[in-house]
Sequence to fold (306 residues):
Amino acid sequence: MSTWQRTAFVANPGGCPLDQVKALDLFDALCVQVAWGTEPVEIFPEWMAQAHSLGIKLYAWAWCDGKDVEGEANLHRACAEGFDAFSANMEEPYDAHGDSSSPKYKMPGQYLHALNWPGPLALTTTPKFASDMGAFIQSGAIHQPQAFSMENATATFSAAVDHSMSWGWPLSQIRPLIQCYPTLGVRPDPYELNVEAESYDLGGIPYVVESALDGEGKDWLETARPTIEREQPQDHPEDTMEMIGSQHGIKAAYNRMKTIDPAGCNPAFNPDNYDALPLDQLKAWDKVCRTLMILRQDHDEEAAMT
Fold:
């Protein structure tokens, strides 16, 4: 089972009855907020002790305000000590909106370097976050774009995943946060969510679970169970197919055979237009050249798509 499978976020541990969470038989871990910027937040030690007694793992998450990148990273690591995993929450204060000249563009990497987190790591962001996340990707972190579709109609599961991939995240490192709290009394359609998640073979993480412990919320969580429980996809070996390119030597070899064995070549055959002559007019070396040119073209077209 992967680290973030069967996990939910909690913003207010004091308002999250653990006996009800346990009774759902849906979550193995809860991710609780431990800091806001450079300030720690209350983490309810008794609540944490009860979670451990119930066999519920505890992960930490912290909101990044960007006023002191290194300072808040150091504080977040200290506040998350003893937790099994950590998720950094980066939103507008870290979002360069794609402007590589903005100081914000490199801030995620600066934060990660200062964080020096030794365990499982995640990055949760707004769904169209556009700063350099390369350091997080290379670290093996999981991206958790916030697919809160009732807050923003464009923040769907699919749109969040597509944006993550466009910024270099492989599917094996994406697991969106999904809205399980109501906006104006309405939650996202869990059936539609399941369809979207299944189309990518990806799971999702409910945010925030304490808001879904009423009757309707529990029904919502149960319906979304396939998405919450779906395993994280595995990395596939990278395809190392290389382009053959223009330096294939096929035409050079054919031109040499025209000198060595002219009887095996039709002088009218042109390797650059190998289908111009009917096949019954091609001689042995013409046919070999035609075959090799077709194979090289097909190979390079496939290599270009990998």
